[in-house]
Amino acid sequence: MHISVETSSDIRAVDALIVFVTSGGSLPKTIQNLDGLLDGAISRAIESKEFKPTVGNTWSTLTLGRLAAKRLIVSGLGSEPITTGSLRNAAGQATQAAKAAHASSVVFDAPPSPLSDRDVSAALVEGALLGAWNFSGYHQEDPEPSTLSRIAIAGFSSAQEATAGVEIGRVIAEAQNLTRELGWRPSSALYPEKLADEAIAAGKQFGFEVEVFDEVKLQELGMGALLGVGQGSVFPPRLVVMRYNAGNTRTLALVGKGITFDSGGISLKPGAGMEEMKYDMLGASAVLGSMCAIAQLKPAINVLGIMAIAQNMPSGSAYKPGDVVRAFNGKTIEVTNTDAEGRVVLSDGVSYAVHLGADWIVEASTLTGAAIVVLGHQASCLVATNDDLANHVLKASEEASERVWRLPIYPEYRELYKSDVADIKNSPGRDAGTITAGMIISEFAGTVPFAHLDIAGTAWTKPGPLNAKFGATGVMVRTFVTLAQNLA
Ligand code: BES
Ligand code: ZN
Ligand code: MN
End-to-end distance of the chain based on CA atoms, in angstroms? Predict the structure, then answer.
């Protein structure tokens, strides 16, 4: 995708000109001018309620030679104030409309707002690249080939600031699109070694260190939990450690669940919808995507990215209910349900983050169906042992416009996962299922401030302003990058 900042405001010979309006209030000057050229078509569409300028709504018309652009797309911003979140969504939705109209070149006209040129430009570019993206798939012939190849943004007072914003928007969008791409990829193409290879390739491209532990090394290190989950698959597990170094400062560890396929194992899942469990690695790929962005945006903080990767399969060699595994930190886990595998692999991932000297550990995983029962697909569940870190995560998520809601940790819940034969049992039952899952993982963080994000409901969703199809959202990349910047 070619992206440019336009300084002259009258060269608009493109397939689609994209403008933005808020709901309520009068139209900004530039849009009033366009409205005049189009005999009041815009204002009439709004007055007749044919077009409601809420976020995610667009209205489009051919310009029939009245404007230099062949088509005008008006995208709603909802009520004032204009935020980076509403701009990102509105740009994403408008880009989807441009794609549907088979446009190959578009110009975005930045609306007047109290935001800085840099923030506006970053939000527009990010939204456009997220909205333009879709998984390429394995069709013999692409059923919806995208023609969109040129994006220009205009309407800024500082071209230099706008250009800086383009870079930020591009970096953060591409990081999310990588996360999404990996979520869509089937486990036949993305088994543990392949996900580790993706990290190696990204490390080379963006300049961060990548270390991959294979099954022999995992054995040597005593990562019996990750090995246990992975032992039923012919594709062996991997632990990937990525390092972005900013010098002599504190270290944030990001840890992700990387189950490249979750069949449930011996505690087999029902068949209906099981194909979706290829995306049970979106926590890990969000960590990978975040590392790519962080390595380019260079916040003044060390960031560790850890992916605990395995394939959860039933077989003659699979781990079984009743088995006891020992994690890297020595703690033992009784496996009462092999389908509660996420917390098992993360016990090794999180204890390794402690071992590497993390000052904060933030972990993301598509961990429990219960998280979808609690908040639906509208927000991720947060379970945190430390108020200060929890507040940092909540603040970052708000700035990133990714909804997060904190659940409580009450000491009584601890009784639920006591085991008769081991330190912890992995599947305590239905009560407070999302909380106990997070608490179990927190047992491996020792005294390091720990936050768990259950993204089971948010990592893969229905179509939206930034998600043309249903599917992987790339959730938590924006929050993680913002968190790293805020902690720096
Ligand atoms: N990966 C699943 C959770 C999940 C379910 C994610 C639906 C996304 C959509 C996880 O490994 C799992 O199977 N969890 C079990 C835990 C239970 C056995 C304690 C669950 O939620 O049912
Ligand atoms: Zn799972
Ligand atoms: Mn499972």
Answer: 31
CA–CA separation, 58 vs 99, rounded Å?
A: 13
Ligand 1, pocket residues at CB < 6 Å: 262, 280, 337, 339-342, 366-370, 427, 433, 456
> So what's the pLDDT on residue 12?
76
| Residue 8 to residue 154: CA distance in whole angstroms | 8
DSSP β-bridge partners for residue 360: 252
Three-class secondary structure of residue 308 per DSSP: strand
User: Which ligand does the CA of 417 lie closest to?
Assistant: 1
Please give the pLDDT value at position 19. Answer: 98
Report the distance separating Cα 30 and Cα 34, nearest Å: 7
Which among 368, 372, 426, 475 is the best mutation to test ligand 1's pocket, defined by most ligand atoms within 8 Å of the CB?
368
Active site residue 343: yes
User: From the candidates 66, 194, 250, 269, which is the catalytic residue?
Assistant: 269
- Cα separation, 25 vs 413, in Å, equals 51
Q: Which domains does the chain have, with CATH numbers?
A: 2-176 (3.40.220.10), 187-487 (3.40.630.10)
Tell me, what's the pLDDT at 136?
Answer: 85
Q: Which stretches in the chain have pLDDT values below 50?
A: none
Could you tell me if 288 and 202 are in contact, meaning their C-beta atoms sit under 8 angstroms apart? Answer: yes
Pairing of strands 71-76, 105-109: unpaired
Q: Quick check: pTM over 0.90?
A: yes
71 as an active site residue: the answer is no
